[in-house]
Amino acid sequence: MRFAGTTRRRSVIVGLSALAVLGQPALAQAWPAQPIRVVVPYAPGGTTDLVARLVAQGLGERLGQPIIIENRPGAGAMVGSEFVARAAPDGYTLVMSNIASHAISPSLYPANTVRYNAVRDFTHVALLTSNPSVWVAHNGSGITDLATLRTRAAAGQGLDVASSGAGSSNHMLIVQLAQLAGITLHHIPFRGAGPAMTAVIAGQVPLMSDSLPSAAAHIRGGSVRAIAMSSARRHATFPDVATFREQGLDLVGDSWFGLSGPAGMPAAIVTRLNSEIRALLDTADMRARYAEFGGTPGALDADGYTRFVTEEFARWAPVVRASGAEAG
Residue 17 has what pLDDT? Predict the structure, then answer.
């Protein structure tokens, strides 16, 4: 026997399912209907902030809505990342995900202080850039290359080295260089690359491990001296800067930066965002801008970026444990 009420309920369920499927393209067309907020989990002035602002301008024009950058630094980029993980998954709140927030910090900080899962609690949208790191020295420090760095460190009680914060790839480079060279280096974490670079230029800290994009203008301007690059071979943007390998230490590695939102973002919005970002990064203007600061444009779809973040998270956990590095 069939009851009228049951038939109506089934009709409603079928109707809602159809709307859910048909509504995806319509949702993508209606979105965005208001400004989009991109959280940068560092202070202004570093690579994460630089890339966010560079991409935001062109992406906002393509989407027809302004993109507002909001800096929320702290705890190895986890403060801003946690904020976005807890936001509504409507496509209007995104975060600059990066090697610190989604690969290193979750393993570096005590488990009871990490309030998000770097993979499950986010919708990973697009990879924006990857780039090597560069070590720079205060012009009056007398440190001109890795040889003088090692001599100075061995002659005293070690050397202070600034970075954009605990949990960054540059923090890991400091730990690894000290271990490989057999010297003492004191990590001095700041709340972003901008404040750290300011301290080095002023001579408050003699050295800094930094991502190339945020250091590039300072190297060109002569306000700091570049002493080593973490690329596998000399970088085309700065061919005069020797690599770590050339100077006797096998240190090679890149930082990466992307765009992610809270878990559960509609697939249509993710596809639209990824498509617009990849088209933007492929323009001649953006390629030229990237070449200026030594970055490589991202070229992954959303699924590819999700796999990338998952692999990086798994890769760095044992490295952090083996390094003995601490968050402080």
Answer: 44
